[in-house]
Specification:
The chain is an alpha+beta fold. Helix content is 35%, strand content 22%. It has 4 helices and 3 strands, in the order ββαααβα. It has helices at 43-62, 66-73, 77-86, 110-122, and strands spanning 5-13, 19-28, 92-104. It has a 3-stranded antiparallel beta sheet, covered by helices on one side. A hairpin with a 5-residue loop joins β1 (5-13) and β2 (19-28). α1 (43-62) packs antiparallel against α3 (77-86). The longest helix is centred in the middle third of the chain and has 20 residues, at 43-62. The protein is elongated. The two termini are 15 Å apart. The relative contact order is 0.19.
Length: 147
């Protein structure tokens, strides 16, 4: 409540031939010293944010293959990048890629499948992925630790 929800979706083709539909979600955020209860974005700001979200998702997904893209989803790097890029238009919070649908798979190639599985066996399974935590809890002076 008291914020704007912004959603965007885009169809992207990865370098290895998969066609995916990415869905992103974002919420507007109150500024640090904001007194006003609501933080609604104007429709023009929403359009600009959505345009920027689509542009970032397209760039990130079309430059890598499916395996690399999944690795990008785990620590939410795409969401953080969208949040950083759209901060000049309107500050955002809780920016995530909320859903990914596979629309089209490339033709089945046995040699490519065996090649992928040999790479997976060689790589260390269960390697820890670092997540960037920027200011998990922000405190305001005189608010008793609350917002």
């Amino acid at each position: 409540k008291w914020q704007t929800l912004i959603e965007a979706s885009v169809d992207v083709k990865t370098t290895d031939g998969y066609t995916l539909r990415l869905f992103a979600i974002a919420f507007t955020k109150k500024r640090l010293n904001q007194v006003k209860k609501t933080s609604y974005a104007k429709s023009s700001q929403i359009r600009n944010i959505r345009k920027k979200m689509i542009e970032i998702m397209t760039n990130e997904a079309s430059k890598c293959d499916l395996r690399q893209l999944i690795i990008k989803f785990i620590p939410e790097t795409i969401g953080a990048e969208i949040e950083k890029a759209c901060n000049g238009i309107y500050p955002l919070q809780n920016v995530f890629i909320r859903k990914v649908k596979m629309l089209k798979k490339p033709k089945f190639d046995l040699t490519k499948l065996l090649e992928l599985h040999s790479e997976a066996a060689a790589a260390e399974a269960g390697a820890k992925v670092t997540r960037v935590e920027e200011g998990a809890v922000e405190t305001v002076a005189g608010a008793g630790g609350r917002y």
